[in-house]
Amino acid sequence: MAAPLPEWPYPFWIAHRGAGKLAPENTLAAFRVGASHGWRAFECDVKLSADGVPFLLHDDTLDRTTSGTGRAADLPWTALSCLDAGGWHSRAFAGEPPASLAAVAAWLRRNGHGLDLEIKPTPGDERRTGEVVAAEVLRLWAGDARPPLLSSFRPEALEGARRTAPLLRRALLVDTDWPGWLDVALALGCVAAITHHRLMDAALVARLHQAGLRALVYTVNDPARATELQAAGVDGIITDAVDVFVPDGTGGRRPA
Q: How far apart are CA 71 and CA 57, in angstroms?
């Protein structure tokens, strides 16, 4: 007998890193641009500063997406918050600061938007990052009926999150079909698996649903592929193409 699927309060369509590539990723500007295109659920990456403040950044280093250099984990939040996290993208966003998780939470809650929060720990700090992020989510979304989904490629981070906040929903991110990943997701008490879209098909959707897990995919930018995955029965699609898809449940393309 198949396990019952968990309650799922999140929208089907999720904007990757705020607004895909239309604005500097993982900034409040990106969330605002995504929302201006009608998106109501977002994905972003979170890690810790040297003094343990959760903030948004994908890479371990600052060089690609900020005016800083070196490891983000070596600087306190007071220094990180003064960097330019928008100028690398375009002149229009020059001076956009990095976003703290606290600032993102305030904006999301005020606007009623959902969040897939990817825990992106600095290597060697996986468990503690999961613990700190989960504790902050409990504080920042206190009383909210739809706190973020906590996702990560790192099982240790999810284990830290589970120990700190067992009732928060968790999802294992999977980029390759490594042996035993489904068993790991179940052992961690995950409610979903989020795989690279190339791994997902109707058979894997059925396998995940049979195990009682929701099936989500990243990062789908091609309309034909999105249609295939919807037909396969996935429970959510993460995309950069916020200006292509209409996130109204139909997944149709915007008029040219």
A: 11
> What mean pLDDT do residues 133-148 have?
98
3-state secondary structure of 231: helix
Tens digit of each residue's pLDDT (9 = 90 or more) over 95-138: 999 999 999 999 999 999 999 999 999 999 999 999 999 999 99
Q: What is the pLDDT of residue 125?
A: 98
How many C-alpha atoms does 236 have within 13 Å on its Cβ side?
28
Say which residue the tokens 């009383």 belong to. 143
Angle at 171 between CA 65 and CA 46, to 5 degrees: 25
CA 179 – CA 170 distance, rounded (Å)? 20
**Are the C-beta atoms of residues 225 and 199 closer than 8 Å to each other?**
no
> Which residues are catalytic, by number?
16, 58
Residue 218: strand pairing partners:
196
- What residue spans define the domains of the chain? 13-239
Tell me the C-alpha distance between 32 and 133, whole Å: 23
User: For the segment 57-82, what is each residue's pLDDT rounded down to a tens digit?
Assistant: 999 999 999 999 999 999 999 999 99
Q: Which residue from 244, 241, 242 is spatially nearest to 255, judged by alpha carbons?
A: 244
Question: What percentage of the chain exceeds 70 in pLDDT?
Answer: 97
SS3 223: helix
Across residues 229-256, what is the average pLDDT?
A: 87
CB 165 within 8 A of CB 144: no
Domain 13-239 has CATH 3.20.20.190: yes
Total residue count of the chain as it appears in this document: 256
